[in-house]
Automatic annotation (TrEMBL):
Residues 125-221 bind DNA. It comes from the Bacteria. Residues 2-117 form the Response regulatory domain. InterPro entries: CheY-like_superfamily, OmpR/PhoB-type_DNA-bd, Sig_transdc_resp-reg_receiver, WalR-like, WH-like_DNA-bd_sf. GO terms for biological process: regulation of DNA-templated transcription. Keywords: DNA-binding, Phosphoprotein, Transcription, Transcription regulation, Two-component regulatory system. This is Response regulator. It comes from Comamonas koreensis.
Amino acid sequence: MRILLVEDEQELAHWLARSLAQQSGIVVDWAGDGLMADLRLQQEDFDAVVLDLGLPGIDGHTVLERMRERDDRTPVIVLTARDSLAERVGTLKNGADDFLAKPFLLDELEARLQALVRRSRGREHPRLSCGPLQFDLAAQRFSMEGATLPLTRREHAVLLALIQRSGEPVGKQSILDRVFIGDRDVNLQVIEVMVFRLRKKLVGRGVQIVTLRGLGYCLEEVPSEVTTDLALQSP
């Protein structure tokens, strides 16, 4: 999961980014003011936004209003010290999906993020799936037919980026941005190698990674008759 944290308190932002990455593997991009956040939201793709209201440049209310005006439906959790009923109701009416008052517990923020992203994709069960391939959000593991799918750290990260958008194309640069921020030895060629290895592990098992020229990769279910043919052809 890749989120945009819009928060002007630098120490809090750095702590949140580090803690969410260590605890649950969430990739956190940071914007320290409303104008930067608005620009990034127009140019980049995020799974969710954690938005403070008291921001320099333009405030969080304006950032949220601009998102919804251009039909940006990315889930938004509002963080603020102003925990009044009127504030909460007004923010939710203006397009926020959830509201969390400062100070807050990290576990609660993580749980709310996971729930928002699941709901935004029409999934209420804490698993992501594509055909027989499942990813358990709580256990942070992939499985097929009840058995854990053995993956390296990088293979796991790439497959997670794909299953979060199963059925949709995901560009190489998008995968790089989502899962390998700060990993300087990773480039687009590394993504290609990871996809090649994943394809070998998935062949004949009911799910495949398809290359869509000019768009990227797409994780999709394989029809049962095709799966049977591939299994028979495997050595």
